Amino acid sequence: MNLGLYGHDGEWIAVDCGMMIRQDLPDSPLQVPSLDTAVALGIAPSALIITHGHEDHIGAAAWLWPKWQCPVHATPLAAGLLRAKFTERGLATDAIQVIDPGEALETGPFTLRYLPLTHSIPESCALLIAVGGYRVLHTGDWKLDPEPLIGPPVKGSLFRALAPVDLVVGDSTNATLPGHSRSEGEVARALEHRLSQCTGRVVVSCFASNLARVLAIALAAERCGRRVSLMGRAMERMVGVARGLGYLDDMPPLVPASDLGYLPPDEVLVIATGSQGEPRAALSRLANGRHHSLELSPGDTVIFSAKAIPGNEPQIERLKHGLRRLDVAIWDEFNHPELHASGHPAQEELRIFYGWIKPKHLLPVHGEPQHQRAHRALADTLGIQAPVSPVNGDLIRLDVDGLTLEARHPQRPCIVSQNAVTPLPGLAAERGSSRHGILHLALPIASTGPGWTRIGRLMLDAHRVSALDEDALADWLDERLEELHAESLAELRVALQPMLTAWLADHLRQLPDIHLQLLAVEAPAFGDKD
């Protein structure tokens, strides 16, 4: 959950606004940063600055931005993802402003410049923040990848021109690891080599945001004679937004998941969400035999092209247990480490980068305490002052005396439901008006030629309604939307409403009052690009 606040002379900006999924709690709710301390201190940012489009950097914006109502500055990919999130929460997107890597902006006393760095998502940028005579480099997430597949490598000359900076707020995630992180180009070659050895169907699970990995998997599949299909709404949305920005022009044509059953097993490759064991994700459904488009069988292979996030190990092991029951081969970070690369810098990359920018002080962020301690120890060998290992809620001052911990404000968890619906115009009917309950359903959708596609999460709010299988409803809706040929949202609603009523009548003991709202989303279609 990344949320940093920078203040000078009573004015503030926020950098990133992320969330985490609490898989240790029932129904896997979201945890977002608490704003209690900021409110108590009178901190209200005049702008939200986004470094890149990962969920732990943008995922909470739709929950916290309504409290700020400030401009949001993001690069094109992150802005597209944010617009989809705002739309599905019923929020206007006018505040989201696009800034290209390399450009600068001013807000209050702050001057900021976006400086491109390589990471496991395109358009990741460090921020050079100039204010009050100080220059701070907020690195965000980064690595020095000589072969990133999407986008150019890091330009050392750009960062050498910054030296010296007063403070670097730096990524500690891999500060305990010697050497250099593996390149995405290396992973691409390893994937193609391993895929050529596979028989039967292959499912590769990776983070949807790692577009370089998604592209590498798809190209390797094509060269190995396999057709590619996507599974998982997060994957479909990410690929759709990226295609609209021209990032995946080389990606081979995609096969709809519903057509996979017509292909020979050795011609099938699926790129699926769910590498962290998320129970609702595509890979968990495959492991439990509950996916409507595909069944795995002995001789198939599942590749985890992603590292386990600390804390997710129990859920991932349950997922793998389900896959073993199906007698499929499992390749992961333990038996095939070459099939994944971290998006964060190891020690040699930190030394090279700090040699470029020559920071006077370091504030180590990200990672666990041991990673921050290792980062500080490395900084000490380079003559960089690093007196503080911050924890959530720390207020830290930078002045002529260096870095000082001013105050420590303990942070309470702020938990929100993944299915929480923001009241929308026409959606907030009076509670209790029906003897059999009320069901509010909002569908963010985009036109995809002859049919329609849902963008993002199903927005459902049920009051006094009997138990409803939301996953089954979502799958049914996706199939119906693809089939309905309507010229407008009004026509689509007229066609969909009676079908929805009939489906609910078949699946609920008592039929509630149904309030259906369709939301047009300004997002690219998911179909193949001409």
UniProtKB/TrEMBL annotation:
- The EC number on file is 3.1.-.-
Q: Does the keyword Cell inner membrane apply?
A: no
- The reply on keyword Hydrolase is yes
- Identify the residues that the record assigns to the Metallo-beta-lactamase domain, covering every copy: 1-180
Query: Keywords of this protein's UniProt record, alphabetized?
Result: Exonuclease, Hydrolase, Metal-binding, Nuclease, RNA-binding, Zinc
Q: What class of enzyme is it?
A: hydrolase
Superkingdom of the source species: Bacteria
Q: Which PANTHER family match?
A: RIBONUCLEASE J (PTHR43694:SF1)
Q: What is this protein called?
A: Ribonuclease J 1
